[in-house]
Amino acid sequence: MSANQIGLEMPQKELNFKIGSDKNSFPVVVINDSNQFASFQIDIAAAGADTQTVDYEWFTVSPDVSVKIPPGDLVEFVVSIIETPIPGFTGIMNITVKAFSIELREENRAVMRIILAEGAGRSNLDLEAPFYKILATPLEDTEIPILIGNSSKQNTNVTLTCIGLPESWLPKGNIQQFPLKTGTKFKTSFLCKPPFDNDAIAQIYNFTIAVSHTNGTSSESQCALEVLPKGSLEFLCSPKKQTIPAKRTWKSWWKFWQSSPAIFTLTANNDSNLPQKIDFEIENFQTSDYTDFSFEISPNEATVEPFSKTELSLEINKPRSWFAKVQKLNLFVKANWHDPRVNTVDEIQAVEVVIKPVVPIILVVILLLLMLIPTWWLSWLNPNNPFPPHKGAVTSVQFDGNGTYGISSSNDRTIRKWDVEGFYVPWVNQDLGSIGEAQKAIRVARFRPVNNDLVAAGLENGEIQIWYAHNISKRPLATFSNQSDDRVFDVAFTLDSRTLFSGHGSGTVLRWDLQNLFTDPPTQPSQIKKFDFAVTSIALVGKDDSTLAIAGRYNQLVLWNWVKDTVKVIPYPKVGGQDDYIQSISATDRKRSLLATGDNQGYIAVWDLKTCLQSDRPCEMLDGWENAHHGKPVRSVAFSDEGCYLASGGDDKEVKLWMLSGVGKRVSSFINGKTLDVRTSNVNAVDIHLTNKDVLTMTGTAIGRVVGQQSERLFNLGCDVNQ
After folding, report:
1. Final residue of a structural domain among 181, 196, 227
2. Is 291 among the domain residues?
3. Strand (E) positions, 4-90?
4. Per residue in 482-519, pLDDT tens?
5. Mean per-residue pLDDT for 373-391?
6. Closest listed residue to residue 459, CA positions, set 435, 487, 480, 436
7. What does the mean pLDDT of the chain come to?
8. Are 304 and 318 found together in one domain?
């Protein structure tokens, strides 16, 4: 038999093993006694141990496999014992060290004696966790009891971990560490406090209690925690009273024979941590004579998630009698919550349905009133009566700051005051009469912004007159002019009303100082600026009222900084000839950098002046559109305060409303605007005012008529905000 080609040497023959000791390792030297390169491995076997049942690692070898070494060379392995070879065994045990090589197909063996003293190995701890379901109420402290026993012969350090429950539920943490002496038991607990929100829905949550310690293997126990239902369920029915048929606007009152069901909104509010389903019952009470009604709930059954609400619709219908008194239907609406484990609030609601007859008494009254229509048609109550208050073309209109009153000027040389409510309420007289009469045609009239108590009027003969807005006066408060017969086409107050600008047909723009208007009215302008085009419209822009936008003949549009006396020309997209005019410009009251223009070629544009007011960069045209009034001249444009709506009027006899986005462009769904009114003559002037719900416009026509239009505000287009 040939000699063994694997040499095996172990300098150490005996090892005293103790858990945690740094002396639990021994070297093994393997020598290549062959005549070829070979790699070597080490394996360890415990004497008397059943290798099939050893399911844990009790030693390590480093390295796992050696590199190939040449003949005569050697490699040293280090064997570390980390556990007792046989769990719980104490005494003396022999282990066999086997060295082998795959290339040589040989092995060599040696024996190492291990002395295992009592308590040298690891042991398991006794863990007692709740085997029953733990009940926890949201926002209340609940203890999860744990009992740990150390039946080994060694003291140990224990780490308890609660796994599977959110850490936010455990106010004192999900980990506990403590020492545990041999032969003792320790009772502890985890404190659990589930929140009252969507993170702690009422259901069972499985979790694990894991235990590990320094002198033994880890173990764990599966547990369950049930979060109990908490909170309340509320039911609300609104409104409490409805009418069949539903109330109509005054424009559709004549459709008296049409009927619609009474609609109620049922709100199911689940303010609990328990998912719910709900359905409803309807019960008639105290009205046994009126049982022939029908109802429908949509949807019939609804699921309401925790901490949420769901709305359902209840429709109640009942046939209407032709001639009878008003009937009343009193009903109970009962909410049936499917899971009764939480409190319910107002689960029964009482509602009333009022059923009106088809032909009510009021209709008879209306028929009588219809007989008075011809009288009304011819009276001042009718804004479209055949006798308009102005005897000449209207040249300007304007709302006061509150939208309560309006003024108009006309070629008939008068300024008239209007009650705005009268435009929309038939029985209110809208015409409050003339507040002044001049010697020449009045081209423009504007309220003084402060208090709206004065009106500045620009005349055909170049004069500017100041009139009291609330008193009928035979003479103006003040009259001043610069050049005779230089027609005043527009005037504009600064916001503080201390300065008035006037634009003239000669191309002159004048600044008037009104600080001492009542004691020392101006006789000469404070500043004169001459332009090479007839000025038709002016508007103050910018935050500090230091810049005046000026428009006129040849489609000229300029910005004049009257403080620095500098002029910036805004290139207009349509080159104009001598017959081309920008007829009207308008700036918003609150976004003073937004400007609208309208010309006699039918073109409307919206400009952003912010960049050109603050720097030398050009002004930006946000939007512009041809044929705004079917190719006819645009005579007047007016911006709303926030710049969300633009009103315009022109020679096509139409009054139009343009809805703009927050960046000053037309809203795509109203790209062609909205026609508010079509008059029988050209529309010369428009103004706009916003109420809480409506857009109000005032219009002046070429035949002397002043009328109002009303349209609902559109809060869903991204610009106008419901405040």
Report:
1. 227
2. yes
3. 6-9, 14-17, 25-32, 41-46, 59-62, 74-81
4. 998 999 999 999 999 999 999 999 999 999 999 999 89
5. 75
6. 487
7. 88
8. yes
Contacts of 241 (CB under 8 A, 6+ apart): 351, 352, 353, 354
Q: In this structure, what token pair is assigned to residue 42?
A: 């080490």
What is the extent of the structural domain holding 98?
6-116
Alpha-carbon span 482 to 470, nearest angstrom: 28
Are 422 and 504 in a shared domain?
A: yes
Counting the structural domains of the chain, the total is: 4
pTM of the model: 0.52
Residue 344 or 650, more confident: 650
| The amino acid at 350 | A
Indicate if 163 and 262 belong to the same structural domain.
Answer: no
**Residues 60 and 118: beta-carbon distance below 8 Å:** no
- Strands 706-712 and 142-149, bridge-based pairing: unpaired
What are 620-631's pLDDT values in tens digits?
999 999 999 999
Confidence of residue 721 (pLDDT cuts 50, 70, 90): confident
* C-alpha closest to that of 699 among 717, 720, 721, 675: 675
| pLDDT, position 118 | 60
End residue of a domain, out of 346, 361, 376: 361
CATH number at residue 101: 2.60.40.2310
Is 216's pLDDT higher than 60?
yes
> Are both 194 and 320 inside the same structural domain?
no
One domain, residues 147 and 110: no
